[in-house]
């Protein structure tokens, strides 16, 4: 393998470290990963939930909140409809738990057994017949155009919260909250991430005296012989509009500016109101009086570092301001300061909020969302809360899985916890997963947790049996699809594992994969996965007239279709699929023969403190792989073989001088003697993690590649 370490000029490292207050090693890793903008860097260096965006930045959120509040006021019946996977189950449990806590009449439903994905006609009609009037979808709904049209006919309002790709026709729902729609600040939230935003917005609406209150933050500052008047119009802690006027004192009447119209019906807040009034009198004359509230004293009490100093001075002290790509002005500082003040005064981030972040964390990891931007804070804070005080249901499940009472990272959650929740849906009983998280009786939760663990074991067995069928069929089909699509189908393939099988095919053949299960009712259900170099919409859109429904993400999607009389519909699909495969064009793929190095470590850096750097870049996962370190000149002081029944792996002890490091090198037994041996001095690329044994935590290396050090002449 080739080792690739990008050269970074030392002056860039020093500049970034000084600007953002981090050490040089962290700065060099950020730069090698192409992270140089403040917007990207803040989500690696900060984890305070105040850095999360306001839920009201999502289009449709205000309409959704207003409708839920009206349903609460009128004591309406509400149905929460979710999806069968971890993201959908956690979304459902979170929203149902919150609305139930408000005393609302709430029921919930998930697709069960062989039900199709998404909101169903049957669920809508049953709910309407029971005099229900509001449906909230979570992790689904954006592709249910016909179903929502039917809900409208039955006078049932629908709020869609979803994160899947919108199709050309958008459902006519009362409100749609989907980060993939235009105007959203961050498109990669999970379904449960969107549900968390809805619950957060509702909490704000119910507890804040500022909910839906129009207000303006006003500031003045001098420039040459003129003054700049800058105003931010805010609602629900989101800037909706800004106005900047540059005025020379005595040259224009206030009535000839845009100020009166902009400030009409607004509560005006100022930092040091007496000074602002004196400035406005200087600009427009003493006859002009603008009523405003001075918020500086109250903010100074809540945030002592801001007491009795100017916005200009606060800007120099602000952590938030350092991450702004443009030069932060006094108004931006005022906005950030006021937002932080309100969040602290109204105690926005409560224990209930932390518990909800546990669910949002699981949904983000399970749905393989990019671990960048605010997803990093959602996962970091969710993991922290999960360790400190797991919510009911998760507590029992963690215990059954042997995960209680220890440090957890995103990999633990991805490999152990999420599959157990997912198993409920894959085995046709997602309602058991949601029931586990909503049940009040601890003894019932204990039984449900045991059921999920048992179903996961059954799912693993089913997966291995299905792989024995899927892999040879896909291999045989490759030539029929120009070696560009791995494709397997059959009546003997369980619907619940088609997604897992498609994932494994991508790993095996490095091309897009499709696995289809035929049901006894003439329904075919397919799961598609892509290695990341082909947008699956290009495959699905030309066939949409054949589908009952379809949707998903760019690199993970699905559909259902009727096979048709004498398989006519299915045969048409096969013909189109072959033509699509012939014309497939793949984007750039990762060079798997190259290993990218994040940092080269001198031997004196090889101590337990390196875990602080590793922790800083957690969570690891999609679009944020574990750190690869390079070190040279370590001596192999001990070597043992590992593995049963065949010892394929190697356990090493590497002498770095002051410290000796335990290391594991997977599938490397055949390299011993040939590429390295006891007593050799070696260079290696490795990651660092923690090993837990009998309650003791020790750092250890996992070797990615290793070679004998070059002999120095």
UniProtKB/TrEMBL annotation:
GO molecular function ontology, one term from the record: 5'-3' exonuclease activity
Domain DDH: 77-203
Keywords for this protein: Exonuclease, Hydrolase, Nuclease
Lineage: Bacteria, Pseudomonadati, Spirochaetota, Spirochaetia, Spirochaetales
Protein's GO biological process: DNA recombination; DNA repair
Domain spans labelled DHHA1: 484-575
Family, per entry: Belongs to the RecJ family.
Stored PANTHER family: SINGLE-STRANDED-DNA-SPECIFIC EXONUCLEASE RECJ
Gene3D superfamilies assigned: 2.40.50.460, 3.90.1640.30
Domain RecJ OB: 597-705
Residues in the signal sequence: none
InterPro entries attached to this UniProt entry: DDH_dom, DHH_sf, DHHA1_dom, RecJ, RecJ_OB, SSDNA_exonuclease_RecJ
Name of the protein: Single-stranded-DNA-specific exonuclease RecJ
